[in-house]
Amino acid sequence: MSLFENTLAQIRKASDLMGLSANAREVLSRHERILEVSVPVKMDDGTVRVFQGYRCQHNSLRGPYKGGIRFHPDVDLGEVKALSAWMTMKCAVVGIPLGGGKGGIIVDSKKLSPRELEAMTREYARAITPFIGPKMDIPAPDVYTNAQIMGWIADEYSKIKGENVLGVVTGKALAMGGSEGRDTATSMGGMHVLMEYLKERGVAPAGLRVAVQGFGNAGSFMAKFAQEAGMSVIAVSDSKNGVFCAGGLDIPTVMAGKAEKGEVALCTNAGIGGAACSVVSNVELLALDCDILVLSALENQVTQENAANVKARMILELANGPVTPEADEILKGMGVPVIPDILANAGGVTVSYFELVQNEANYYWSAEEVQAKLKPIMVKAWMDISANQKKYNCTYREAAFISALRRLADALKWRRGIE
Ligand code: NAD
After folding, report:
1. Is 164 in the same domain as 280?
2. Which residue has its alpha carbon closest to ligand 1 atom 40?
3. Between 20 and 30 A from 203 (CA), which of 20, 59, 82, 333?
């Protein structure tokens, strides 16, 4: 199954449960626009390489397209189509006035020099410039893209337009129109949802054992916040390997070690109080006995092949699409709840929306203001989804899709008269 077929299966399931009209299903299962662009770059050795790039614009019924740009060798059109459709659902889940888009370039960006990376990014920005903008489509960082890359895109776009258009992308550095709290927004949003889930179940966070797959922007801050909430983060991993300590890891030490050595598996004394850690593979991490498994790397990590090995009591999806539909069914049978990506990681796009609002107003909020605005949005989204989950006796993923599809169907009715 391609990743986009997974998305369609999720839309179909929720549509059946809620009785969504055939017309709305048809509209919401298609993309409004798909761009395929070539990105020629003169490399440092004088040769020319032409990279393949995409930007998919799934749906704009509720507002301009919004979604990240990924630089990864495994990017393909099916993946970008899926990710852009999930963005539509995600924005609708948290009720922010944005639609869904996503972009990517097929590239192993770690192998590019800084000059080549900048040249490729600026060339890609030029290729998509006619189709992006604060009122049209607003990209953001995703896997292996960051504030520097957003800075280059905003600069290139502004040069072409002949004016400062910082709101063309979000996830920028604070020095050029970024928002306070954007770097931690995805994990903070995930924490708010997790705490509400635990509260509803009457479970205290202190001492809960957490394993985190993926130690980038989303995963590392999630691990840090989990430790600060009194949980015991027993394992974290990156693309190479993971590190495990039964007594809990000290996350700031792992963060410093990863920054210095490049791999979490080299942080061998990062246990609490300097305790020694052992190396675990990503396969082993997914099967660790723990209370909460946080998936914050890439899609298709828990599949029909390994879902039965999961020993965690629940899964929190900070990555997009880390659990396949087949694995969802297996986990449901095992009684392992999955808090889905379109809710759990929606804090990122919510603060991106705040960044856009601040750019358009050219007036900036304090970190405290950002946090104070984020929490009620995440809590309200959780409440809606928890209520749906009980009403339809379904999974949290189905409940989240129902919430999103209802808002999108409403917009379709009011904008186009389609029911
Ligand atoms: P990132 O590039 O900062 O980090 C990705 C991490 O995953 C790195 O530590 C990398 O080493 C690790 N990784 C890559 N392949 C792996 C593998 N096969 N096994 C284990 N670890 C692996 O990216 P990020 O921004 O943290 O994004 C991670 C996920 O979260 C993606 O699915 C992304 O779409 C999703 N997400 C991120 C944000 C955000 O604001 N950053 C928002 C919403 C969703």
Report:
1. no
2. 348
3. 333
